Amino acid sequence: MQSRSGNQIREDFLRFFEERGHRRIHSSSLVPHNDPTLLFANAGMNQFKDVFLGAEQRSYTRATTSQKCVRAGGKHNDLENVGFTRRHHTFFEMLGNFSFGDYFKQHAIAYAWELLTSDRWFGIDPARLYVTIFEGDAQTPRDDEAEQFWIAAGVPKDRIYQLGAKDNFWQMGETGPCGPCSEIYYDLGLEASETGEDKPFGEDDQRYMEIWNLVFMQFDRAASGELTPLPKPSIDTGMGLERIACVLQGKLSNYQSDLFVPLIAKAAELVGFTAMSPEEASVSDAKGAASLRIIADHARAATFLISDGIVPSNEGRGYVLRKILRRGIRHGRLLGQEQPFMHQMVYAVRDEMQAAYPELNETADRVSKTILGEEQQFARTLQLGLSQMTNETLASGSLAFRLYETFGMPLDFMTDAARDAGIEFDMEGFERAKEEEQARARASWKGGSQKSASPVFTSLPKTDFEGYGKLRIEGAKVLALVKDGVGANELHPGDTGEVVLNATSFYADSGGQVGDTGWLYSPDGAHVLADVSGCTKPVQGVFAHRVTVRQPIAVGDTVNTVVDGAERNSTMRNHTGTHLLHAALREVLGTHVKQAGSLVNRARLRFDFSHFAQVADEELQEIEDIVNREILSNTKVETFVDVPIDVAINEFHATALFGEKYGDKVRVVKIGDFSTELCGGTHTAATGEIGLLKLTGESSAASGIRRVEAVTGTGSLQEFRRDFAVTRVVSSLIGGTSDSPAAALEARLSQQEEEMKKLRRELEQARMKAASASTADAASSAVDVQGIKVLAQRVAGLDRNQMRSLVDSLRTKLGSGVVVLGAPTEDGKVALIAGVTKDLTGRVQAGKIVGAVAAKVGGKGGGRPDLAEAGGTDPSQLDAALSGVPEIVGGLLA
Fold this sequence. Notes:
CATH class of the largest domain: Alpha Beta
Catalytic activity: tRNA(Ala) + L-alanine + ATP = L-alanyl-tRNA(Ala) + AMP + diphosphate
CATH architecture of the largest domain: 2-Layer Sandwich
EC number: 6.1.1.7
Largest sheet: 9 strands, mixed
Structural class: alpha+beta
Subcellular location: Cytoplasm
Shape: globular
CATH topology of the largest domain: BirA Bifunctional Protein, domain 2
Helix content: 25-40%
Family: Belongs to the class-II aminoacyl-tRNA synthetase family.
Distance between the termini: 71 Å
Number of strands: 36
Strand content: 15-25%
Cofactor: Zn(2+)
């Protein structure tokens, strides 16, 4: 067995199947296209799902890929195990070969055995390989066929084991394609054993590692559970690159392979951890080693997720990305690095993986800036979390978990703080809250890879879209009707539902452009049969028209499709305007700008893009000027159809649009030398038809993502009319001036704001002066409690920030001692703050003091040993509570 680098293994795998007639397909995005049931791409077959379902046809019947995968949320969640085991990862690559009704078990098995054992390829000793087959059940017989093919390939019968449906029967979802599978295992040797005992296959998960799964899709499972043979059985295989690299490089852990060791070394350098070498860190059980493995793994996941358009957020995919990043950052902090470092890991990931994923060269800077922003925000959030960490929080598992989730407060940090405060941390409640949150996350993505459309649509032929050249077609046949998600033979007047036709002029929702509206007419054109409010593609190629029925429509009827021309034209103006806007943004802001989402309808356009700062007014004006210059030039908008994807990218230099799915042949929209993009939408014939584009807003859409909105055509005219009306009102208020009305109003508002700031500062200074005066002799009012100066004082008219400043001032005056301030608040409650000088925190803690005081005014609280805050609901007891502070301190010193 010849050792190979991870990059060479990937290339050898793909080349092996290319030589056997497979089309090499680039990895699809980690964001699954048109599959809301799936959180991330988690297997090689995801991008071929519609092909396996029969809803999409490709120009090839054999394919091979190295697919980017993430398992860190929803149904597949390995996050908490990553770094502490040999094989768990958030990001990994799945090597696979696929047959779409071409070859089946015999060839798949022969290919797998040849690649693994041939001296020309991986050259693995067959004596270290084991194979499993499906043992059969009440519905499906034992897979004797697979066993015979394995024997024919050269596997001894005593190396073939039968397992149940849990391990060796695969299904896409509750219904749909499914079938038995065979798994190939590698014996890592006795040194990899969990216990050091020489256990047989099947009794030691660490020693015997699964490296390849061959799925034989040969049945279709109905909703009743009944299985029927598929007319064209297919093959779907998956082999983890990290696992096969571990085998071929003679390692015991995936983290020891060259896919990880350089990243672990970079992580150690960035966090300043030099206690062990990268090789030791890749396999050591020490806590620091686990942290370095976590940083290396999470840097890979974050780099690829952000590169594919995901940004950190508080929901969905962005939330999982944020958890991955913060877990990596936290483990850097455990090793002593409190400064941002994770963003620099991006370049190490790029250097290791750019051979297979050249797009990382272009996205690395954007990804790094996004991560840096998240690191800085996390640091601020962590600091805010400290202020929320009260004794009450630490004593409540559900509240502590909220702190853990919302602020990323490390669990060990909270348990240490509870111990220091003499509080028992509610670990049981914390774990219960955590399990509930995980259950909610799983439920929100329930059905990981089930069909995302009604079964009614999956067996229908594709709709012939003729809408690029005309708004009306005649003689379209009704193929199917759907009402409330269920197929129907007829729709009646007043019904709402969906109509699928064999041909249509209606554009369907895609690439950010909304579907057309219009009407379905009777064949003679005399009667409107239904109003069409939109059009979608529930499965690839099938157009479903959303309708409100006026006259009966039945399956088999013939109709004429008529698109609302005015709405189509408005939408086209906005869509072509979007292409111009994208190009102008890149020209003004830089080529790092990438589309991150869009919406195009008749009324307006919205465009989200990657950028790290608010776009200045001057930049927006320049962008608007550039777009309108291109509009006024009336450049021809050219469309090229059925362009090979490699020609479109390499010769046309076309830009791909976010959210669009591209096959081998694509549609290219070219606007002179200014803009060239892959796009399936409808467009104007020339830019002059847009009329004018007016930007109406710029805002933040997410971390690292900005959003601009605009209108075109008559929408621009309406915008200018509104602006003109505002200008007239401003002129009447401001009066005559040499400046423009906008500039004059801005100056007036700025002047008033400065005056308000000045008054606020004077008020705050007056309050602080009054408070300071009332406490001028406070130090002399301090009482002695067992050798410690204790000062408790009532103040009024101060907010919490001012109270904290006053506590600091009083501690300085005391030199050494305890300060407690209390104040009634405007909402009828009580604010309390306690401070302890650093030299005394070993004897008495601020959190315990303020908690005891708060209890006397109907509240709770806690915090750090040197400074803590609390609140209460009973101001009438404030003076009594403050007078009891010396006694509280004495009790704590006892």
